[in-house]
C-alpha cells in the first residue's frame, strides 16, 4: 500500500514536471540563433563592449597563453581608465574582456566558445592552431567574429573559407619568405641546409623560403632533412647536414630545447654556419644564449614587434607606456617573457582602429571595419612593418623584418652579411 | 526485467524511475538554453568514453591508459567519412568497428601480459597515435586537424541543431549505457569480476582470463570508438591534440572520481571531465590546473569510492526494501536483475575499489 502511494506520487511528479518543462519550453524562441535581427549584436551596449578570449592559461603553453590575455587586457584597461574607446558611431564605450582557459585542448576551447558566444561581441587574441580551429566552423555558423587570433595557420586569413575570421600574426610562409628574400639579394653564393619540423609548421616555413629563393642563382639547397616534433634529439640530422658543407642553415623548429641542442651540436662538430631561426624559437634568453649562439658568425630571425628587454628600446615611448600598463592593468607584474604579450597589445590597438571605423553596433559592421585597416603602424611595431587587413589571404600583420642577433638582442638588418 | 515475478504495484515502482528518466531526457533538450544543451551533449560524449574505460578497468581490473586513443581513432574515422560524404550510418559502423578491431589486435598481444605490463602497452597507444595522426596528413589533415560538421537538425523537425544533436547523443549514448549495463549485470559481468579478483580462481572454474580480458578490452575500444563518433558530432573537430596522453590520464581521473566499476560513476565521471574545467574557469581562469588538482584530491580523500558512492546508500536502501536480494557471490547461475535506474548491484560496487 505504501508502495502504491509512492508510485502514484512518482507518476504525478513525472507528469507535472513534464508539463512544467514543456510550458517553459515556449520561452526559448529565438534563443538558439545568436544574433537577432534589427538592433545591436550581443555583447555591445551604448556604454560597453565585451570581448571573449579562449587561450591556454594552464599546461605547457600557459606562458604564451597568459601573455595573449595580458597584452590586450592592459591595452583596454589603460583606455578604460581614460574613459573608454571612441567608436565610429559616435559613442564611447568601455571594453571588457572575459578570458577563459582551454589548456590547449580543442574540446575545451569549443566549450569556452559555446559559453562565451552569447555574451561577447567578438572573440579575439586566443592562441593555438587546433584550439582556434575547433570552433571555427561554429563561429562561422553563428556569425561570431573570431579575429586577430594568434595562429600562423593560413586558413584563418582566407577570406573565402573563413568569412568571420582573421589571423593576426604572420603566417609561417611570410617568415620563411622574408629570410629567403634577404639571402637571395645578398649577392654572394650560398649553400643552404634545411632542417624543418615534419608538419604544417615546418612545411610552411620551407615553402615560403623556397618560393623566395626560386630562380636565385646564388642560393643552392644542399641538404634538406626533417624531424618530428616529438623527437628528443636532432643530433643525427645536424651531423648529416654538417657534412653537406652548407654555410647557411634554415632551421624551422618550434621546440625550444631542440633548438638549443641543435646549436650546441653544430658547435661540437665545429660546423659554424649562419643560422636562421623562426620568431618563436629565437628568444635571446631562452634559446640563443643557452645554445652558445655567440659562436656562430650570425644568427638571424624575423620579427615585427619591439623587444622590450632590448636596450635599444629601453627609452622608447611605446615600450614604457606598454610596460607600465601591463603592470597596472594587465595583471602581469613581471617583464614579459614571450613576444605574445606585445602582439596582444597590438591586437588591442588594431581592435581600437576597427572600433573607430564602425558605424553600427553590429558584428557585420565590425568585420567590415576590421577588414578596412591599411598600413596602420600599431604601437610596439618595428619600422617597416604594419597592420594591413585589406589583402585577401594575408593575416593582419603580413610583413616581418629580418633581424640579426647582436649578443643581447636583435637588430633589424637590411642586407645579409 | 520481467523474469522476476513481483506484485503489480512493485513493477510499477520499478518502471516509474526509468520512465521518468526517459520523459525528463526527452523534454529537457527542448527546455534548456543552447549552452546547457551543448554542455550536456559534451558530458554524454565523455561519459561514454569513461564507460568504455570502466568496462576494462573498473569491471575487469586491467589498467588501460590508452582509452583516449580509441576516442581519437573513432573521431578521425568519423571526420574522414563525413568529409568524404559517406553515408552517416556507414560512418557510424566504421567508427565503431575500426577502433574495435585495433583494440582487438592490441589486446591479443597486451592481454598476455599481466598487471602493470598491460598498462605500459596501452600507454604506447596515445604516444604513438599523436605523431601517427600528424604523419598521415592525407587522411588526418596533419597537425591542423579535420573539421566535419554533421548532424544538423533535419528540416521539418522544428528543432534547433543543438537540440537535435543532444537527442542523438542521448539516443546513442543511452543505448551504449543500457547495453553495457546489461552486459556487466549478466554472465559476462560476473566473469569480468572474477577475472579482476583472481585470475587463478577464474582458470580453476574453466574461465579463460585471457579470452575475457581481450573481450573487455575490445568492447572498451568499441565504446571508445562510439564516443569518438559522438565527439565529432558535438565538437565537430579533431586534431592530434585530441588524443594526447594527458587527456588519457584526465579520463582515468574522471573514472576514478566518478566511481570505478559503476555505471552511474561513468556518467558522473563524464560530468566531472566536462564541468570541472568550466567551473574552475569561473573561479579563476589562471588557476584552473591548480583548482582541478585540488578537486581531485578532495574527492579522493572524502569519497574514496568516487562520486557514485554518494548515491549508493540510497540505491541500496531502496533495493532492500522491495527486492529482498542480498549480496550474491560473484558467480551464480541465476540471471541478475537490477532495479535502480543507474545504481549498481552491491557486489560490483565493492569490487570497484578494493
Automatic annotation (TrEMBL), chain A:
Pfam families: Peripla_BP_6 (PF13458)
InterPro entries noted in UniProt: Leu-bd, Peripla_BP_I
Residues of the signal peptide: 1-27
Record keywords: Signal
Sequence ranges assigned to domain Leucine-binding protein in this UniProt record: 49-403
CDD domains: PBP1_ABC_ligand_binding-like (cd06343)
Family membership: Belongs to the leucine-binding protein family.
PANTHER family: BLR6548 PROTEIN
Protein name: ABC transporter substrate-binding protein
Organism, scientific name: Pseudonocardia humida
Amino acid at each position: 500500500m505504501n508502495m502504491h502511494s509512492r508510485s502514484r506520487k512518482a507518476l504525478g511528479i513525472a507528469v507535472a514536471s513534464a508539463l512544467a518543462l514543456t510550458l517553459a519550453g515556449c520561452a526559448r524562441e529565438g534563443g538558439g540563433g545568436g544574433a537577432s535581427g534589427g538592433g545591436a549584436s550581443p555583447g555591445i551596449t551604448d556604454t560597453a563592449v565585451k570581448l571573449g578570449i579562449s587561450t591556454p592559461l594552464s599546461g605547457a603553453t600557459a606562458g604564451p597563453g597568459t601573455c595573449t590575455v595580458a597584452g590586450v587586457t592592459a591595452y583596454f584597461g589603460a583606455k578604460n581608465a581614460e574613459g573608454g574607446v571612441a567608436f565610429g558611431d559616435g559613442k564611447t564605450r568601455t571594453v571588457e574582456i572575459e578570458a577563459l582557459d582551454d589548456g590547449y585542448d580543442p574540446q575545451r576551447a569549443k566549450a569556452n566558445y559555446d559559453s562565451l558566444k552569447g555574451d561577447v561581441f567578438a572573440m579575439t587574441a586566443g592562441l593555438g592552431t587546433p584550439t582556434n580551429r575547433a570552433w571555427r566552423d561554429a563561429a562561422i555558423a553563428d556569425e561570431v567574429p573570431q579575429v586577430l587570433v594568434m595562429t600562423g595557420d593560413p586558413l584563418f586569413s582566407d577570406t573565402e573559407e573563413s568569412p568571420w575570421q582573421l589571423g593576426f600574426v604572420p603566417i609561417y610562409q611570410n617568415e620563411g619568405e622574408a629570410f629567403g628574400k634577404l639571402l637571395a639579394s645578398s649577392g654572394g653564393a650560398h649553400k643552404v641546409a634545411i632542417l624543418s619540423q615534419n608538419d604544417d609548421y615546418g612545411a610552411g616555413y620551407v615553402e615560403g623560403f623556397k618560393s623566395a629563393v626560386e630562380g636565385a642563382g646564388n642560393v643552392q639547397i644542399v641538404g634538406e632533412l626533417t624531424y618530428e616534433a616529438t623527437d628528443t634529439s636532432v643530433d643525427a640530422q645536424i651531423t648529416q647536414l654538417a657534412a653537406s658543407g652548407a654555410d647557411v642553415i634554415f632551421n624551422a623548429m618550434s621546440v625550444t630545447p631542440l633548438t638549443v641542442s641543435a646549436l650546441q651540436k653544430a658547435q661540437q662538430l665545429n660546423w659554424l654556419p649562419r643560422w636562421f631561426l623562426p620568431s618563436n624559437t629565437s628568444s635571446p634568453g631562452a634559446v640563443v644564449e643557452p645554445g652558445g649562439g655567440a659562436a656562430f658568425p650570425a644568427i638571424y630571425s624575423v620579427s615585427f614587434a619591439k623587444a622590450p628587454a632590448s636596450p635599444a628600446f629601453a627609452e622608447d615611448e611605446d615600450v614604457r607606456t606598454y610596460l607600465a600598463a601591463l603592470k597596472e592593468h594587465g595583471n602581469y607584474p613581471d617583464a614579459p617573457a614571450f613576444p605574445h604579450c606585445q602582439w596582444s597589445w597590438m591586437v588591442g590597438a588594431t581592435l581600437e582602429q576597427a572600433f573607430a571605423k564602425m558605424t553600427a553596433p553590429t558584428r557585420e559592421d565590425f568585420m567590415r571595419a576590421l577588414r578596412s585597416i591599411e598600413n596602420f603602424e600599431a604601437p610596439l611595431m618595428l619600422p617597416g612593418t604594419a597592420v594591413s587587413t585589406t589583402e585577401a589571404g594575408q593575416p593582419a600583420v603580413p610583413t616581418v623584418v629580418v633581424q640579426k642577433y647582436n649578443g643581447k638582442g636583435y637588430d633589424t638588418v637590411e642586407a645579409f652579411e | 526485467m520481467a523474469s522476476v515475478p513481483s506484485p503489480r504495484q512493485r513493477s510499477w515502482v520499478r518502471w516509474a524511475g526509468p520512465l521518468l528518466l526517459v520523459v525528463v531526457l526527452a523534454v529537457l533538450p527542448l527546455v534548456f538554453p543552447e549552452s546547457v544543451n551543448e554542455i550536456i551533449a559534451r558530458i554524454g560524449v565523455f561519459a561514454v568514453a569513461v564507460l568504455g574505460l570502466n568496462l576494462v578497468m573498473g569491471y575487469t581490473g586491467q589498467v588501460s591508459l590508452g582509452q583516449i586513443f580509441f576516442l581519437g581513432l573513432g573521431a578521425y574515422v568519423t571526420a574522414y567519412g563525413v568529409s568524404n560524404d559517406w553515408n552517416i550510418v556507414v560512418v557510424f559502423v566504421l567508427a565503431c568497428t575500426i577502433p574495435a578491431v585495433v583494440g582487438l589486435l592490441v589486446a591479443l598481444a597486451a592481454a598476455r601480459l599481466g598487471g602493470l605490463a598491460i598498462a605500459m602497452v596501452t600507454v604506447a597507444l596515445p604516444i604513438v597515435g599523436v605523431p601517427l595522426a600528424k604523419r598521415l596528413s592525407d587522411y588526418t589533415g596533419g597537425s591542423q586537424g579535420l573539421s566535419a560538421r554533421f548532424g544538423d537538425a533535419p528540416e521539418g523537425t522544428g528543432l534547433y541543431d543543438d537540440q537535435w544533436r543532444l537527442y542523438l547523443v542521448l539516443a546513442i549514448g543511452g543505448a551504449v549505457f543500457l547495453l553495457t549495463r546489461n552486459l556487466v549485470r549478466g554472465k559476462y559481468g560476473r566473469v569480468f569480476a572474477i577475472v579482476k579478483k583472481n585470475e587463478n580462481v577464474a582458470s580453476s572454474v574453466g574461465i579463460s582470463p585471457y579470452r575475457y580480458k581481450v573481450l573487455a578490452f575490445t568492447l572498451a575500444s568499441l565504446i571508445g570508438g562510439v564516443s569518438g563518433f559522438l565527439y565529432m558530432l558535438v565538437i565537430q573537430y579533431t586534431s592530434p591534440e585530441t588524443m594526447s596522453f594527458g587527456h588519457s590520464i584526465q579520463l582515468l581521473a574522471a573514472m576514478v572520481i566518478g566511481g570505478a566499476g559503476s555505471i552511474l560513476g561513468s556518467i558522473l565521471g563524464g560530468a566531472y571531465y566536462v564541468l570541472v574545467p568550466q567551473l574552475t574557469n569561473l573561479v579563476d581562469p589562471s588557476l584552473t590546473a591548480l583548482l582541478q588538482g585540488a578537486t581531485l584530491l578532495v574527492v579522493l580523500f572524502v569519497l574514496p569510492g568516487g562520486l557514485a558512492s554518494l548515491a549508493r546508500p540510497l540505491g541500496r536502501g531502496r533495493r532492500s526494501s522491495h527486492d529482498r536480494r542480498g549480496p550474491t557471490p560473484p558467480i551464480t547461475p541465476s540471471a541478475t536483475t537490477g532495479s535502480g535506474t543507474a545504481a549498481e548491484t552491491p557486489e560490483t560496487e565493492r569490487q570497484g575499489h578494493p
